[in-house]
Structure formats: structure tokens, C-alpha cells
């Protein structure tokens, strides 16, 4: 028999055999997959209908194809539940407190997306009236504090709740270029590519943009120094800076955290006289196994080995020479570039030097690529000179979840970022009252900012809360939010990924 006549034969394997094509062919939805069964086995029950997106309208779904979901466990998101697979939930590392708390820790990372879920509808967050929207903007600008009851009986009819919701969505941005997405900036080249950037080839226009940016940056710092602004972010195409007012994160002085950094940036900061620390930096060890400080003189080296001479083992220990120590340290520093361990912390008056350094730093702005000539993005919770009022995008979605043989309503509220720490806390306060003390949330973090939850070195653990309230009464934050953000950071290099409120008590995973 000729080769071409052999069933399934494909010369040179240029084309898949017919038998393989049949196996790969997806079965029709009306037919169960043709899985082989053992001889004598009982007939297999047809599998459940194919899953649909839980957030698509059920009214348009054909009969018999409603989404079928597994119920949520009480302890949080399941590891492999179909419902959560559709949400593209990132891997979670359990870090749950031993017992529920009435408050969750401050999270200084910027969130790109929040997804709240509840058994109670979010209809109160839909279709705000023009008057409610205007009132929410006015409340934000006047820093009005809304205190809702523990449980709002009729959320959809509560004008106070709806106005406060609008108020919690407001943030301030500079520069404002409506056709460009200005956050996040790290890794944003693909999203900005192809957009109109008339300044990229116009030096005069670039200088005008940077001049306005410098005025806005200085305005924010002055507000921060006067404790009229609690914090703000500077988002460049390579790194992000978080400036915090004195009294926040357990510090009694202004602080600035920069992440990620490079050896070149750190050297440039040192050359400008900016004193900073590397809270996550571990000193390298020499071949002899001794930890070495970054800069020591020969006299210090001799003195540090004097105790070995007294023990009579001085000659048996090889003293590392200065060059090898320097090379080893430089290698170690380069290895941590662009990593969370490269976090730099600037405190006190050095933050003003950092301000001038960033304004005059040529590498702050890209000289090539889609972001060439575009000033860094300034994000703030309050108004500042040159800032533009923006609002987070919010939408509520309804779906059905199968629990045993019945269907239950599943309600969700999606918030699209940049969601700053104060907004996250404000939203949870509103949802606590509107959703009867029970909801869960998936939080999507802008990863380069997760390290901002690192605890400050030499932070004042005895910082008086009354002093914080006295010094920051007009910073624009709710008093409860201010109290949360004044606490010492506890999340380390991680951030909150999942948050659950049950019976008015929080648990979380990071």
C-alpha cells in the first residue's frame, strides 16, 4: 500500500493528520465531550453548561445557559473557584490577622483597580443626579466630613450617601492631557505610543511644560510643609516618589520614599548632598565573612582588626583590601537596582533638597520613546496650583451565582484607579454603612508602589495622636482616614490584595 493511502499519514508532517484534527476539534455545545469511559462504568452525567462572564447581562443570555458559579467560602476567595478565575485574580499570599479587626492597616501603594462584591446591591452608586454630583464636588473642595450611621437602611434613597460617594472619587492630577493616560507611567510606553505628542520635537514647548510642572510640584510641597496636603506622588517613567507630611506613617518630620532606584540615581543624590537611607538594603559580606560599612578609612580598618591581634589570630585572618570591598559593594548595589530593595528614604529638610534635585534632574524626563519630553505625573488628594480635578471611574454590575440548585444574586462595584490610600479608606467607610457591614474586595496594586508600605527607620513610636490631629486639621482628609494613615506601616514590602468585611470586622490578605 502506498504511503499516501495510509490513513492519517502526512508526508513530512507539514499538515496535521486527519485523526489529530478531529481530536482537536471542539465539540458542539449541544453535545457532551466524547470522553472515553471504562468498560462497564455507569453512564456519566453530562457536564454543566459552559461558563459565561458573570458581569454580562443575563437578560441577553439564551435559556439554559445562565452562569453557574460556586459559592464563596466564608474565609475569602477560593484557590481555584471558577468565579474568581474569570476575575483574573492575582496569586495571594495569606497574611490574615489571627482575629478580625475593626480597621485594616494603611496601604500606601496606589491601586489601579478595586472590585467590591456583596450580597447587597450597589444601585445606590448608580446614576447620580446632577445635584448630587455637584454637592459631592463641593464637599470635596470644602473638605466636608460626612459621618454616616452604622447601617443605611435605604441606600438608594440616601442623598447623603450618594454625595459622599461622589466626594470619595475625586483626585487631582498634573499635567492634564485628556488624550493620554498619565497613570501609571512605569511601563506605559505601549499605551502612549501612537498618541499625539507635539512637545516631543519642540524644545520650547518642552520647556513650557516643565516650567508649569515645576510650579505645580513646588505648590504641592509648600502645601505639604504647611500640613494642608497630607501626601502626594510624583510618577516618573522610571520611578515613583511618595511625599508624606509630618505626622503620617508614624513620623514627626516630612518623609519622601523613592522606588525603584538605580546606582546612578543614588550617586547623583549623594553628589547633591541629599542624605538618605536604604531601609531594605543588606550590607554585603567580604570573603572573610565580616560585614562592612559602605565607607571606612584605613585607620578604621586597622582598628577593627585590633581585637584579632589580641587573640593571637591576626595573621590567620585575611584582611580584605579597600578595592575588593568597594567592588563587592558596587556589585551588590547594582544587583538591587530596579528592585524593591533599592527603596530610598529621605527625611526632614533633605526633602526640600530632593525637591530642587528633581526639578533640575535631566533624567527625570525621557529623552526618547513615547514619553519623551512629558513631565512626570503629580497625583494628590487635594487641590494644588495647576492641578486638574479628576474622578475615579465607577460602575456597578449584577450577576447570578449558582448555590446548590438555586441561583443567588451577586453584586459588584468596580472602581478604576489611580486609587490613592485616602480614597480606599473613604470608599470602605461608605460601603461598610451601605452594605450592612459585609463585603469583599479584590485590590489590584501598581507593583512599584507596594514597597511604600515599608516601616520607616527610627520612626517615632510614641507619636501623640492628639498632636497629629492638631497639626493636620485642614489637610482635606476625613478624621478617621487621617487616624489610619498616621499609624506605623505594617505591611512591609507587600500590599493588601484581598479585603473582607464581615459583621463590621475586617480580615485581609497581602
Topology:
Blueprint: H1 18-24, H2 82-86, E1 111-118, H3 130-141, H4 159-168, E2 170-174, H5 189-192, H6 203-225, E3 231-235, E4 240-244, E5 255-259, H7 263-271, E6 276-277, H8 298-304, H9 306-310, H10 322-335, E7 344-347, H11 350-360, E8 377-380, E9 388-391, E10 393-403, E11 406-419, H12 421-434, E12 439-445, H13 465-471, H14 479-485, E13 498-502, E14 505-509
Antiparallel strand pairs: 1-11, 1-12, 2-8, 2-9, 3-4, 3-8, 4-5, 5-7, 6-7, 10-11, 12-13, 13-14
Summary keywords:
about 500 residues, alpha+beta, 8-stranded antiparallel sheet, 6-stranded antiparallel sheet, 14 strands, globular, disordered N terminus
Characterize the biggest β-sheet: 8 strands, antiparallel
Structural class: alpha+beta
Query: What oligomerization state is this entry in?
Result: single chain
Give the strand line-up of the largest sheet: 6-7-5-4-3-8-2-9
Name the poorly predicted regions. 1-6, 9-14, 29-48, 54-94, 286-300
Mean pLDDT: 79
SSE succession: HHEHHEHHEEEHEHHHEHEEEEHEHHEE
State the helical fraction. 25-40%
Report the count of strand segments. 14
Overall shape:
globular
Number of helices: 14
Terminal-residue CA separation: 65 Å
Radius of gyration: 29 Å
Report the sheet-strand fraction: 15-25%
Biased composition (Low complexity): 41-54
Protein name: DNA replication fork stabilization factor DONSON
Region (Disordered): 1-84
Keywords: Developmental protein, Nucleus
Quick synopsis:
Helix content is 26%, strand content 16%. With 510 residues, it is of the alpha+beta class.
Q: Could you explain the architecture of this structure?
A:
- With 510 residues, the protein is α+β, with helices and mostly antiparallel strands.
- Among the domains are: 130 residues, no CATH class; 47 residues, no CATH class.
- 26% of the residues lie in helices and 16% in strands.
- The strands form two sheets. The protein has an eight-stranded antiparallel beta sheet. The protein has a six-stranded antiparallel beta sheet with strand order 10-11-1-12-13-14, with helices on one face.
- β10 and β11 form a beta hairpin.
- α3 packs across α4, α4 packs antiparallel against α12 and α12 crosses α14.
- The chain starts with 17 loop residues before the first helix and ends with a strand.
- Keywords: Developmental protein, Nucleus.
- It is found in: Nucleus.
- This is DNA replication fork stabilization factor DONSON.
Amino acid at each position: 500500500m502506498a504511503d499516501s493511502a495510509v490513513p492519517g499519514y502526512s508526508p513530512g508532517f507539514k499538515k496535521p493528520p486527519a485523526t489529530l484534527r478531529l481530536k482537536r476539534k471542539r465539540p458542539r455545545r449541544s453535545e457532551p465531550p466524547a470522553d472515553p469511559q471504562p468498560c462497564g462504568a455507569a453512564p456519566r452525567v453530562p457536564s454543566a453548561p459552559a461558563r459565561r462572564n458573570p458581569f454580562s447581562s443575563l437578560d441577553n443570555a439564551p435559556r439554559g445557559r445562565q452562569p453557574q458559579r460556586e459559592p464563596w467560602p466564608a474565609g475569602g476567595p477560593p484557590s481555584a473557584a471558577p468565579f474568581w478565575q474569570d476575575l483574573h485574580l492575582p496569586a495571594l499570599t495569606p497574611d490574615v490577622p489571627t482575629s478580625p479587626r475593626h480597621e485594616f492597616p494603611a496601604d500606601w501603594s496606589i491601586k489601579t483597580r478595586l472590585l467590591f462584591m456583596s450580597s447587597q446591591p450597589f444601585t445606590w452608586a448608580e446614576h447620580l443626579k446632577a445635584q448630587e454630583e455637584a454637592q459631592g464636588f463641593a464637599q470635596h473642595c470644602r473638605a466636608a466630613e460626612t459621618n454616616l450611621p452604622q447601617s443605611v437602611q435605604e441606600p438608594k434613597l440616601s442623598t447623603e450617601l450618594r454625595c459622599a460617594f461622589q466626594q470619595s472619587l475625586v483626585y487631582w492630577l498634573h499635567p492634564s492631557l485628556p488624550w493620554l493616560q498619565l497613570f501609571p507611567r512605569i511601563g506605559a510606553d505601549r499605551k502612549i505610543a501612537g498618541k499625539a505628542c507635539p512637545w516631543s520635537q519642540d524644545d520650547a514647548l518642552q520647556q513650557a511644560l516643565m516650567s508649569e510642572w515645576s510650579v505645580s510640584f513646588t505648590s504641592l510641597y509648600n502645601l505639604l510643609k504647611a500640613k494642608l496636603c497630607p501626601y502626594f506622588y510624583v510618577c516618573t517613567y522610571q520611578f515613583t516618589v511618595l511625599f508624606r507630611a509630618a505626622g503620617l506613617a508614624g513620623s514627626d518630620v516630612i518623609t519622601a520614599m523613592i522606588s525603584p532606584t538605580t546606582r546612578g540615581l543614588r550617586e547623583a543624590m549623594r553628589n547633591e548632598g541629599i542624605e538618605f537611607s536604604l531601609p531594605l538594603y543588606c550590607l554585603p559580606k567580604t570573603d572573610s565573612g565580616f560585614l562592612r560599612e559602605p565607607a571606612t578609612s584605613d585607620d578604621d580598618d586597622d582598628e577593627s582588626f585590633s581585637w584579632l591581634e589580641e587573640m593571637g589570630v591576626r595573621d590567620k585572618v585575611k584582611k580584605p583590601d579597600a578595592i575588593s570591598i568597594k567592588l563587592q559593594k558596587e556589585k551588590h548595589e547594582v544587583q538591587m537596582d530596579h528592585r524593591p530593595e533599592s527603596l530610598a528614604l529621605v527625611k526632614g529638610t533633605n526633602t526640600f533638597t530632593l525637591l530642587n534635585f528633581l526639578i533640575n534632574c535631566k533624567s527625570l524626563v525621557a529623552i526618547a520613546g513615547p514619553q519623551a519630553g512629558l513631565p512626570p505625573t503629580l497625583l494628590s488628594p487635594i487641590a494644588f496650583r495647576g492641578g486638574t480635578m479628576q474622578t475615579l471611574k465607577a460602575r456597578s454590575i449584577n450577576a447570578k451565582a449558582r448555590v446548590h440548585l438555586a441561583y443567588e444574586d451577586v453584586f459588584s462595584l468596580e472602581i478604576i484607579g489611580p486609587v490613592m490610600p485616602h480614597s480606599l479608606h473613604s470608599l470602605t467607610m461608605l460601603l461598610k454603612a451601605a452594605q450592612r457591614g459585609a463585603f469583599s474586595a479584590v485590590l489590584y496594586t501598581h507593583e512599584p508602589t507596594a514597597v511604600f508600605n515599608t516601616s520607616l527607620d527610627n520612626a517615632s513610636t510614641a507619636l501623640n495622636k492628639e498632636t497629629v490631629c492638631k497639626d493636620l486639621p485642614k489637610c482635606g482628609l476625613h478624621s478617621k482616614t487621617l487616624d489610619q494613615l498616621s499609624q506605623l506601616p505594617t505591611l512591609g514590602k507587600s500590599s493588601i490584595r484581598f479585603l473582607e468585611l464581615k459583621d463590621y470586622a475586617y480580615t485581609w490578605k497581602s
